[in-house]
Amino acid sequence: MRFMMLVKHSEIPGPQPKEFVDAMMKLDEEAVKSGAMVQSGGLSPIAKSTRVRLSRGQVTAIDGPFTESKEVVGGFAIIEFKSKEEAIEGAKQFMDLHKKYWPGWEGETEVRQVLGPEAFDLKP
């Protein structure tokens, strides 16, 4: 089962400590070696992003920064797990690295199953 991990935090969490980066690289390497890691990455700041919105029949593009953003998605990973429980444990391990190597960092990881075509099968 594939799960997307969405990492959310304040817009400016501060520079990443070297120990944290090293621990994250090790975690990523292990996930790649085991074949569980599908894809992961950090996201650029919202000041460099654009929102494309459909409202009242009009499509508009608005460049960041967005003043109302208190929490942003700062990174993601798509990982193969055997169950939702295993995915939650993986997210806890990921957050424990933040706790250990980046004191004061606050945020959350949202765990969501990636639905394949079978989830939308509309056959009678």
Structural write-up:
It contains two helices and six strands. Helix 1 (18-34) packs antiparallel against helix 2. The model has no long low-confidence stretch (mean pLDDT 89). 28% of the residues lie in helices and 34% in strands. By secondary structure, it is of the alpha+beta class.
What is the element layout, followed by pairings?
Elements: E1 2-9, H1 18-34, E2 37-42, E3 50-55, E4 58-63, E5 72-80, H2 84-101, E6 107-113
Antiparallel strand pairs: 1-5, 1-6, 2-5, 3-4
Low-confidence stretches: none
Strand count, sense and barrel status of the largest sheet are: 4 strands, antiparallel
Secondary-structure element order, N to C: EHEEEEHE
Rg, please?
17 Å
Strand content: 25-35%
Q: Structural class, from secondary structure content? A: alpha+beta
- Kindly state the percentage of residues in helix: 25-40%
Number of strands: 6
Q: How far is it from the N-terminal to the C-terminal residue, by CA? A: 25 Å
Task: Give the helix tally.
Answer: 2
Based on CA inertia axes, which overall geometry fits? flat
Mean pLDDT over all positions: 89
Strand line-up across the major sheet = 2-5-1-6
